[in-house]
């Protein structure tokens, strides 16, 4: 993990609950101050440092603005590095995943745009519930396993939401 901490770059305390609009405003402000164009007349070393600061800022912003990546980052700050792909030891959620995938395939086969919209709203509710659950347990060492499980669920739902957006675009064409 590069230093300083992603949260420190934005002068924030590590937390899952963030005001994303505030984060975006801070990002724009900081991005202007470290933008490489501002260092066009500076020494090569200063230009390189500006480029590195700009890259760090971009990485931090991309990580913190997406809930699953923010969750993963918070867990990595407080414990051992997490493997990227882990078989979910979570039979109930595995069944839920299969059900969602089948439902999405049916919506795709029937080109049901209204159905996709309803599916997307239900998915958003599930994501919000997971985010709330994660927010309440991520910093409790006794609930670390639960937080990791929730983070993996968040990653799956994020991927599913991306697939839903792609399907919407295909059906809109």
Automatic annotation (TrEMBL):
InterPro entries: DnaJ_domain (IPR001623), HscB (IPR004640), HscB_C_sf (IPR036386), HscB_oligo_C (IPR009073), J_dom_sf (IPR036869). Keywords: Chaperone. SUPFAM superfamilies: Chaperone J-domain, HSC20 (HSCB), C-terminal oligomerisation domain. Residues 5-77 form the J domain. It comes from the Bacteria. HAMAP family: HscB. Belongs to the HscB family. Co-chaperone involved in the maturation of iron-sulfur cluster-containing proteins. Seems to help targeting proteins to be folded toward HscA. This is Co-chaperone protein HscB homolog. It comes from Pseudomonas benzenivorans.
């Amino acid at each position: 993990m590069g230093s300083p901490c992603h949260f420190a770059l934005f002068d924030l305390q590590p937390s899952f609950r963030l005001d994303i609009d505030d984060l975006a405003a801070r990002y724009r402000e900081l991005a202007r101050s470290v933008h490489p164009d501002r260092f066009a007349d500076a020494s090569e070393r200063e230009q390189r440092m500006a480029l590195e600061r700009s890259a760090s800022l971009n990485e931090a912003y991309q990580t913190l603005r997406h809930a699953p990546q923010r969750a993963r980052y918070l867990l990595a700050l407080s414990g051992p590095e997490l493997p990227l792909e882990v078989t979910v030891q979570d039979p109930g959620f595995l069944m839920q995943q299969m059900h969602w995938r089948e439902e999405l395939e049916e919506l795709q086969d029937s080109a049901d745009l209204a159905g996709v919209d309803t599916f997307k709203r239900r998915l958003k509710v599930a994501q919000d519930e997971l985010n709330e659950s994660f927010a309440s347990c991520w910093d409790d060492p006794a609930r670390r396993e639960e937080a990791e499980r929730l983070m993996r669920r968040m990653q799956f739902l994020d991927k599913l939401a991306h697939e839903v957006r792609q399907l919407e675009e295909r059906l809109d064409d």
